[in-house]
Amino acid sequence: MGTKAIGLLAATALLGACAMEQAELEKPTMAGDTIRFSAGSCFGACPSYTLRVTPDGSGLIEPQRFTAIPGPTRFTVTPLQYRRFRAALAQFRPAQGTVKRIGQGENCTRFATDMPGYVIEWTRGEAPPTRLEFQSGCMDAGYGRLRATIASIPKMLDITPMVKPTAAKGK
After folding, report:
1. Are 63 and 70 in contact (CB under 8 A)?
2. For 111, which DSSP code?
3. pLDDT tens per residue across span 53-96
4. Which segments in the chain show pLDDT lower than 50?
5. Do 55 and 32 touch, CB atoms closer than 8 A?
6. What is the rounded CA–CA span in Å between residue 113 and residue 52?
7. DSSP string covering 9-65, please?
8. What is the pLDDT of residue 43?
9. pTM value > 0.85
10. Are 36 and 52 spatial neighbours (Cβ–Cβ below 8 Å)?
11. Which of 25, 30, 85, 108 has the fewest CB atoms within 10 Å distance of its CB?
12. Could you tell me which of 164, 140, 136 has the C-alpha nearest to residue 150?
């Protein structure tokens, strides 16, 4: 009985490792940044997920809450979509290898609570990641373009159906 239990635990661990393996992207073969975008939860039904896109066009979205997909889902983007995504975010990118935080009490005076937070991270090879953390409750006018860019990401990458759950239809 003990041997069966150990075997069952080992099999479960292996299956768990396989599931985790599936949720990874291959190392890009093209030069450029892998961009990770995370949409955090809010006090309500905001879609919460993390996605990554490589310069090769490989994408992976991992849902947390209020999305239309049940688990990690691969997608692809065209070279043009990747370039547009990278260019749209470039104006907000902090200096290489640094972290910039935009939030209440730091560099934001008009702030609404219960709004989602967003993280954008650029990685390339072994270089330290570059990271932007934005609390979307920051309503300062100077961050309007950042809010609009973040709102456009699902459409830009053609993943809107994945992150916007459809309304339940009648029986």
Report:
1. yes
2. B
3. 999 999 999 999 999 999 999 999 999 999 999 999 999 999 99
4. 1, 5-21, 168-171
5. yes
6. 27
7. HHHHHHHHHHHHHHTSPPPPSSSS-EEEEEE---SSS--EEEEEE-TTSEEEEEEEE
8. 87
9. no
10. yes
11. 30
12. 136
Answer whether 50's CB lies under 8 Å from 37's CB.
Answer: yes
Over its C-alpha atoms, the chain yields an Rg (Å, rounded) of 19
Query: How confident is the model at residue 166, as a pLDDT?
Result: 59
**The pair of three-digit structure tokens given for residue 122, joined into one six-digit string:** 């650029």
Task: Output the six-digit token pair for 163.
Answer: 């992150």
Q: Are 132 and 148 in contact (CB under 8 A)?
A: no
**Residue bearing tokens 């990747």:** 82
Q: What would the two tokens of residue 20 be?
A: 């985790």
Give the closest residue to 32 by CA, choosing from 99, 85, 108.
85
What pLDDT score was predicted for residue 12? 41
Those residues whose C-beta lies under 8 Å from the C-beta of residue 23, and which sit 6 or more positions away, are: 60, 62, 72
Provide the pLDDT for residue 167: 56
